[in-house]
């Protein structure tokens, strides 16, 4: 707390401390105590989200399928609605920006998800880049206390924090009717206080982890004991593979549950030393899904367009051209299948030949497909090759729908992937598929990562 805090605010804090359940230094907002007027003042805007009250807090309901449902709020108005008084600065925010190192959100989602908290939007319609923290949660009936670590966020630029608008993007993949309940929001001056509070409530999701190796003897500095749902960083050009965690917990079952809810992205579970203790698929399959997510995100964020890349984009992508076949060969290259043409790459008409030359398993029954398989559809008139290809990423929640990584058009390139569609679209029947198999002769990472 800042030494320049006004006497008015000191008095308010003293009064607040007398309230039952008050958490010292947390500046708690309990949304279960809100009424309709408080709700309207706090959450005036939303995207793809209906905002209402329920007995447990603020209920957010997806109006439609969305990759970015969100609510925006003015943090001063939120504290004003919660009964906090205006300070000498003119704001009702009861802390100085530099005093907050950890945010704890009490949340409950109908499905597992990833959330992003923008603490410096600057307005209620825009978001400031790099001024956000992310967290994860498991869907179901349990409350989760998600810890968001601000200690490494934009040091020295505190005036941007909590100055005006804030925003919560409450998931990255929702269907119409999915829900998210925000029960509490707390701000702590250090991580240990936030963790102590969350630990006392049992269900805690932490996102703090350093980079470890594959099974290092010691955990990285600052990594707590427990289990982490993580993505291993790209191995190309590096002897040390890193771990990027999105969800951490002390319970293995909880980590596995979250991992399974996002397995189309390539997640697996490791301990604090980097040892993989659970994976929904083989390590190669998980890596294919991870790299497919990476490449599709990279292409979207860098404004690639659909077209015939002159050079294999896995080797040189300065042309910013990609297509269905170039996506597949780019991903295959990143997981170690680097014997590919320099010019163009592996084109769709040669994808089956290249797959067979690498010893991949041919799949002729679409009921036998597995995540990571290379799918070939829409055979040419003579049935000798396919005209379209994509990467299969498993079944989606909706019956008959599947995840796919697909760069078959500009619209697909600019979409958030994986897409969810039927396996066979009009005019594009299933032809065959190939399951990548790593060997000592076809994969440069075989000895280190994929050997039995």
Task: Give a brief outline of the structure.
Helices cover 20% and strands 27% of the residues.
Keywords:
about 450 residues, alpha+beta, Jelly Rolls, endopeptidase fold (from Nostoc punctiforme), 3 domains, 7-stranded mixed sheet, 6-stranded antiparallel sheet, 10 helices, 24 strands, about 20% helix, elongated, disordered N terminus
Describe this structure in words.
The protein is an alpha+beta fold. The chain folds into three domains: 7-205, Sandwich (Jelly Rolls); 227-280, no CATH class; 304-450, endopeptidase fold (from Nostoc punctiforme), CATH 3.90.1720. Helices cover 20% and strands 27% of the residues. It has ten helices and 24 strands. The strands form five sheets. Strands 1, 3, 4, 6, 9, 11 and 12 form a seven-stranded mixed β-sheet that branches. A hairpin with a 6-residue loop joins strand 21 and strand 22 (402-405). The longest helix is centred in the middle third of the chain and has 19 residues, at 283-301. It is elongated, with a radius of gyration of 24 Å. Residues 1-24, 208-220 and 234-241 have low confidence and may be disordered.
